[in-house]
Specification:
Length: 479
């Protein structure tokens, strides 16, 4: 996500940190490089000009240049200004007391509007809403079919209507939501290859007919600063309330995301980075600014872990794991937890320096998949008693998993290392026994927290819990 810009800025700050004292010339050179980095990222030139002027003025203040750590203060100034550029404060969806609430999506054809509508429905359903999708794109072939397919995959009802009048379909969709007791309606409108009067008039007619609480414009992050002109046209004619930045996982240079708030005054409400239903997430300007500067986003990582349902385990199993009696079935549980948090790539990208490590190929993102394949090639006895794995068993397992014996040996070495670390870290990862809860045999149960045991053995992060990682980010920001 914005890897190119992030790497350029980190290199600039790396040069500043190598100097004990900064001069005005050092600041000027750094600002010049930052200006070039932003322009190459396709950020609107007026936005860049204002951003550099504000940042340079703050960096040249005496309290920055004459401090004991001037380079770190410069980074802090850039972080603050970058956060202001992205929106400064979170902008969440606001629901009214009307039932149903209506959310209308607008944007150009190809921006990912239909997919964004389905992802938004999935997100709202996870937040205990009962959404209805309404297909009002009557022009693009199979647009309604696409929305229907996505809705079926996510378990969200889709209203398609009849005929070619999108305004009529939108009104009928709202009535259908009332009849079926849905509390949110998401209207997917038609797009065009470019802004035209017919498109704007139709969007305005739908808006007048259903009176939506929120109008969101879907913007393709790969469009660059050209999207600013499109957004300005929509803001003038339809007056949307916020932006969904789609395709943030592509080769987006960041120009649109960094320009749109400053130019249009409209906040980014959601970003989408991936094809999975859960890839749409609320936008947090401060967290994005930290990721761009290579500081990671451990807060989002902690929130992802908190979304996982607490998995109850018997006291005997908890005590066995605390005694470092880790089995290979527990490795499968670890993999399941990581998948529930978005996969190893998303997890590592949230760590300080994680995006750079991924872009430089320093992380084997398929290691957990190979590990899972190897374990599935074992018998239940071998999973529970890994010590019985002799040479002949390992050869059989390697053949069954389609890997080499060296791969099996490597995984077993990681298993041994993880097992060694478990005794040290497991007490911090398990919460206290839940009061009043007992198992079928009358034994107390413990709940497994959001930590991921054994990440040191799997990913090379020293077996740190999420609490450790959050503390690491806090220390990095205060450097």
């Amino acid at each position: 996500m914005l890897e190119s810009l992030s790497e350029r800025l980190q290199n600039i700050f790396g040069g500043l940190r190598g100097k004990g004292k900064l001069t005005e010339e050092d600041i000027n050179n750094a600002m010049r490089e930052i200006r070039m980095a932003l322009l190459e990222a396709d950020v609107n030139f007026k936005v860049v000009k204002d951003f550099i002027a504000r940042t340079k003025e703050r960096c040249l203040e005496a309290e920055v240049l004459e401090s004991l750590t001037p380079a770190q203060n410069v980074v802090k100034v850039v972080l603050d200004e970058l956060t202001v550029l992205l929106g400064e404060t979170d902008s969440k969806l606001v629901f009214s007391s009307r039932i149903p609430n209506v959310i209308m999506l607008v944007g150009l054809q190809g921006s990912g509007k239909t997919t964004a509508a389905a992802k938004l429905a999935y997100l709202l359903r996870e937040q205990n809403h009962n959404p209805l999708l309404v297909a009002c794109d009557v022009y693009r072939p199979a647009a309604a079919d696409q929305l229907q397919t996505l809705g079926d995959e996510m378990g969200v009802r889709v209203y398609r209507g009849e005929g070619q009048d999108p305004v009529k379909i939108a009104k009928e969709g709202v009535q259908d939501a009332i009849d079926t007791m849905r509390d949110v309606v998401i209207i997917d409108t038609a797009g065009r290859l470019h802004v035209d009067d017919q498109m704007m008039e139709e969007a305005q007619n739908i808006k007048d007919a259903v009176q939506p609480e929120t109008v969101l414009m879907v913007v393709d992050a790969m469009t660059g600063q050209d999207v600013v002109n499109v957004a300005a046209a929509f803001a003038e004619r339809v007056d949307f309330d916020g932006v969904i930045m789609s395709k943030m996982d592509g080769d987006a240079r960041g120009g649109g995301a960094l320009s749109i708030r400053e130019v249009t005054g409209k906040p980014i409400k959601f970003i989408s980075a991936g094809e999975k239903p859960d890839s749409l997430e609320e936008f947090h300007p401060d967290r994005m600014a930290k990721r761009i500067l290579g500081m990671g986003d451990v807060v989002s990582l902690v929130e992802s872990a908190a979304k996982l349902h607490a998995e109850e385990i018997e006291e005997e199993e908890a005590e066995r794991m605390m005694r470092a009696n880790l089995t290979l079935n527990d490795f499968l549980m670890i993999n399941k937890q990581i998948r529930g948090m978005g996969g190893i790539s998303k997890l590592i990208s949230a760590l300080p320096g994680g995006d750079r490590a991924l872009s430089q190929g320093q992380v084997d993102t398929r290691a957990l998949d190979r590990m899972e394949t190897i374990i599935f090639s074992m018998t239940e006895e071998e999973r529970n008693k890994p010590d019985i794995l002799n040479g002949s068993r390992r050869a059989r397992i390697a053949a069954g998993a389609g890997v080499t014996v060296a791969d099996v040996n490597r995984m077993m070495k990681q298993y041994a290392e993880t097992k060694k670390q478990m005794k040290q870290y497991m007490p911090a990862l398990l919460e206290e026994p839940a009061k009043g809860k007992r198992g079928k045999k009358g034994k107390k149960k413990k709940k497994r927290g959001g930590g991921m045991p054994g990440m040191g053995g799997l990913g090379g992060f020293g077996g740190m819990s999420l609490k450790d990682l959050k503390e690491q980010q806090r220390m990095l920001e205060n450097q």
